[in-house]
Amino acid sequence: MSDTPRHRPPLPTSVKLAFGAPAFAGAAMGIPIGVLMPQFYSDVVLAPLGLIAISIAIARAFDALTDPVMGWLSDRTHTRWGRRKPYIALAAPFAALSFYMLFAPPPSLDPNGAALWFAVSFCLFFLFSTVVEIPFGALGAELTPDYTERSSLFGYRSFFVSLGLLIAAVFPTFLEKGMGIESQREIFIIMARLYGGVALCLTAIMLWRVPENREYAQREANPLVPGVRRALRNRPFRILLLAGIVSAIPAAIPAVLMPFFVEYVLQPPNPTTWVGLFLLTYLGAGLLMIPFWMLVAKKIGKLPTLIVNSVIGIAGSALYFFAGAGDLKFAGGIYFLTGMVSMAGTFLIPAMAADVIDYDELRTGKRREAQFTSFWALIPKFVAIPGSSVPLAILAAAGYVPNQPQSAEVLLWIRFMYSLFPIVFYVVSLAIVSRYPISEAVHAKIREGIARHDRGEAAVDPITQGRIEPFGSRPQSEEIGWFLDYFSPGELQQSLSTGGGPVFKRVLAVTGASLALCVGASSVAVAGFQDPTSDPALRVVLAIVVAGIAFTAFVFHAMRLGAARELANGSYDPDTISTHLAEQH
Q1: Given this model, what pLDDT does residue 150 score?
Q2: What value, to the nearest 5°, has the Cα angle with vertex 141 and ends 138 and 145?
Q3: In 142-234, where does DSSP find H-type helix?
Q4: What is the pLDDT of residue 5?
Q5: pLDDT in tens, 374-384
Q6: Which among 222, 239, 364, 563 counts the fewest CB atoms within 10 Å?
Q7: Nearest alpha-carbon partner for 61 in 393, 513, 518
């Protein structure tokens, strides 16, 4: 039997290590960005908290907009070096440079200038990180087709993630206590230089050692908009996506508020040291438990393991609310408990997502790793924008004063947002993901169906039990099918009854309405931005989120206008449209 992507030998351990290693630097960079950066800019650089919240919202909205474009580009790229690696090699140096800029604001900047510096460097960092991360995630999804080995591959990556987070958690304390460096600015500059340099070295090793899947790269890519519609018809994808959206809403809150929670709620004698100790406890527990959860997943499956972890995490999160001043041992125990389950999702979810991509191949005949990777990044990033910026705006509105004892109202808000608020979303997300249908047995049937299609035979969808004909023997060409997927089933039904003209008008109206909403929300944001020192920016942050989502919708529907005009011109007869609608069922 030939060594095809369908039947490949196990991945060498050296390849798994090389694939996972860049995550060490990426995770190390994530700690200062997600945990330390807001307080660094508010308390050290002295940028207004409202401006920081606005800047984070703008940067993350911009970052979310670039994800689907990057996924689409990577899937359509054909070079002698592959369709993933060129983007990674090109963008990695710029990501490292912009990371350094983010943590080295010139001391001469005034507060507003510092906030502007933060916004620009933050946007650049996430732009170049997207160019690296979307192809990198797609590369991992296509390295192996094996259900169990995918957990192992992403488990290696999670080990490096956990190790990077662990090192980053204690490194500031080491620099301050062990090296005697008292300047916070100097500490952040050293971290930026070290983490950026390590990221470049490990990325270079990955590019050299990890192969691309050449067979997948030879397939013809699909148009962007029809690809979105077909992805949303994929039930396992919809479940994972919706669960990810719900859990992403509050996901950034604990990281953003941890320094505030430790310093002002727990009130230890040296807050910086205790933040490092608690992070060490949390991340160390996560690192130690990765091999255990990998064994559990191999024994009982990915979904049951994820459910167990979620239940433990929810229970632990509730306990934070009961911690108060001086409860350092109690808080440490909670950090250990929640840390035990903190890393399981980092390898279980990508492994489950890779199985979803196989199911998409069974249904569409395409390999769209980057497009699916960008989907999973896009919408959760939008909904996570409030989680990373609204808490800061709420603290500013409640009367937060940097480096001073906080009022009872501010302390209550910190405890509530840090503990109880996220639990509601985590419970809903758990209820959604529990309906995920792909087990190891189902995945084996998916791979069997793909093999049958390769032989020109019909396959059975193991989830819907429907019959899926091989793509070369369908009653209409794939080109026609992808074109008609520019439209929803309701729009196609309307074209059968009233012609394509009303469909074109409908698409045009939705495009215009999306643009109008984007302009209106942007106007609200600009109006609130005029006095950021007195405005807590909550309204502005939400307006930016709405504007970003509306602009994404505008681009999506604008890309449909050409197809809608062609449909209005009567280019496709009713029988062809009816056949396409029947194939969707």
Answers
A1: 83
A2: 145
A3: 147-173, 184-209, 214-217, 224-232
A4: 43
A5: 666 665 565 66
A6: 239
A7: 518
Specify the pLDDT at position 388: 63
pLDDT of 22: 92
* Residues 38, 176 contacting (CB under 8 angstroms): no
Neighbours of 146 (CB within 10 A): 16
Residue 233's pLDDT is 81
State phi, psi for 370 to the nearest 5 degrees.
Answer: -70, -40
Distance of CA 91 to the CA centre of its chain: 18
**pLDDT reported for residue 2:** 38
CA distance 502 to 496: 11
Q: Quick one: pLDDT at residue 144?
A: 80
Alpha carbons within 13 angstroms on the beta-carbon side of residue 309 total 27
Q: Is the dihedral of CA 315, 320, 323, 329 positive or negative?
A: positive
66 CB-near residues (< 8 Å, 6+ apart):
126, 127, 130, 131
Over residues 133-173, the pLDDT tens digits come to 888 887 887 888 887 888 888 888 888 988 888 888 778 77
Question: Which bin fits 53, alpha (ψ -120 to 50), beta or left (φ > 0)?
Answer: alpha
Which residues, in sequence order, are bridge partners of residue 467?
A: 460
- With both helix axes pointing from N to C terminus, report the angle between 13-20 and 147-173 in degrees, rounded to the nearest 10: 50
Q: What is the pLDDT of residue 343?
A: 86
Give just the sign of the alpha carbon dihedral 120, 162, 88, 152. Answer: negative
Q: Are 136 and 23 in contact (CB under 8 A)?
A: no
Which is nearest to 106 in space by CA: 174, 220, 189?
189
Which residues fall within 8 angstroms of residue 372, CB to CB, at 6 or more apart?
A: 71, 138, 141, 231, 237, 353, 356, 357, 360
SS3 252: coil
Distance CA 258, CA 391 (A): 12
Tell me what pLDDT residue 322 has.
92
Containing 460, the helix (H) or strand (E) segment is: strand 459-460
**What is the rounded CA–CA span in Å between residue 541 and residue 26?**
27
Residue 468 per-residue DSSP state = E
- Both structure tokens of 420: 């109880």
Question: Helix, strand, or coil here: 7?
Answer: strand
Distance of alpha carbon 328 from alpha carbon 277, whole angstroms = 10
Q: Cβ(529)–Cβ(54) under 8 Å?
A: yes
Please check whether residue 1 is in contact with residue 143, taking contact to mean a CB–CB distance below 8 angstroms. no
pLDDT for residue 161: 86
3-state class (DSSP) for residue 467: strand
Q: What's the pLDDT at 318?
A: 93
20 by Cβ neighbours in 10 Å (0-12 / 13-18 / 19+) ranks as buried
